[in-house]
Each structure stands twice: as C-alpha cells, then as structure tokens.
C-alpha cells in the first residue's frame, strides 16, 4: 500500500494534527517508510514461537484463573470509617 499526500492529509485530519501543505510529501514518505517496516515484519515466520515477556529467559508464574472474593473482606473493611453488613457504608448523597 502506498500513501500519497491526499491520504496523509486525511490521516492528519483524523488525528487532529495540523500539517502544512508543504510538509505533506514528507509525512506521506514517513508513512510509506513505516508501512515498509510493517511489511518486513509480516514476512517473518513466527509460527510456534512463544511471545516474549522479557529479554532475559524467565517463566511467568501462572495460576488457575478462577473468580473468588479474595477471602479478605475483614482486612479490606478493617480501616473503613463505617462498615455495615460486610460493605462500606457511605452517606447518602442523592435525595
């Protein structure tokens, strides 16, 4: 895909960036360079390669993904100025 000055102006408008008409050819060239890099990256075969989490080899700690209440209700409400029936109590602000 090739970006011309018309498309560059449209992208600048959508991004709410003011670009002078004289700068549009340079902007279109930058867009084309970026798209060229993206095309190069798309040519790389990454099938079967795990995503990196760090530049140093390490394993992520994993846990079972289950929904719980954390079993910490007492700790959470301990410093609350007012707690009732297991919830934070706040003053009524809407009448």
UniProtKB/TrEMBL annotation:
Which reaction(s) does its UniProt entry say it catalyses? L-glutamyl-tRNA(Gln) + L-glutamine + ATP + H2O = L-glutaminyl-tRNA(Gln) + L-glutamate + ADP + phosphate + H(+); L-aspartyl-tRNA(Asn) + L-glutamine + ATP + H2O = L-asparaginyl-tRNA(Asn) + L-glutamate + ADP + phosphate + 2 H(+)
Keywords recorded for this protein, A-Z: ATP-binding, Ligase, Nucleotide-binding, Protein biosynthesis, Transferase
Q: Which top EC class is given?
A: ligase
Q: Which GO terms describe its biological process?
A: glutaminyl-tRNAGln biosynthesis via transamidation; regulation of translational fidelity; translation
Q: Does the keyword Cell inner membrane apply?
A: no
Give the highest taxon in the source lineage: Bacteria
Q: Does the keyword Transferase apply?
A: yes
Which terms does the record give in the GO molecular function aspect?
A: asparaginyl-tRNA synthase (glutamine-hydrolyzing) activity; ATP binding; glutaminyl-tRNA synthase (glutamine-hydrolyzing) activity; transferase activity
Enzyme Commission code: 6.3.5.-
InterPro entries of this UniProt entry? Asp/Glu-ADT_sf_sub_c, GatC
* Pfam families tied to this protein: GatC (PF02686)
- Matches recorded under NCBIfam families: gatC
Under the subunit heading, UniProt states:
Heterotrimer of A, B and C subunits.
Q: Which family does it belong to?
A: Belongs to the GatC family.
Q: Which PANTHER family match?
A: GLUTAMYL-TRNA(GLN) AMIDOTRANSFERASE SUBUNIT C, MITOCHONDRIAL
Q: What does this protein do?
A: Allows the formation of correctly charged Asn-tRNA(Asn) or Gln-tRNA(Gln) through the transamidation of misacylated Asp-tRNA(Asn) or Glu-tRNA(Gln) in organisms which lack either or both of asparaginyl-tRNA or glutaminyl-tRNA synthetases. The reaction takes place in the presence of glutamine and ATP through an activated phospho-Asp-tRNA(Asn) or phospho-Glu-tRNA(Gln).
What name appears for this protein in its UniProt entry?
Aspartyl/glutamyl-tRNA(Asn/Gln) amidotransferase subunit C
This chain's source organism reads Thalassovita taeanensis
């Amino acid at each position: 895909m090739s970006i011309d000055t018309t498309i560059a102006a449209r992208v600048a408008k959508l991004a709410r960036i003011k670009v002078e008409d004289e700068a549009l050819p340079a902007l279109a060239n930058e867009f084309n360079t970026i798209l060229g890099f993206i095309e190069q990256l798309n040519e790389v075969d990454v099938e079967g390669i795990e995503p990196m989490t760090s530049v140093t080899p390490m394993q992520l700690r994993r846990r079972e993904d289950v929904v719980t209440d954390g079993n910490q209700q007492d700790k959470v409400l301990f410093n609350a100025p007012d707690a009732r029936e297991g919830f934070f109590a706040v003053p009524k602000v809407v009448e």
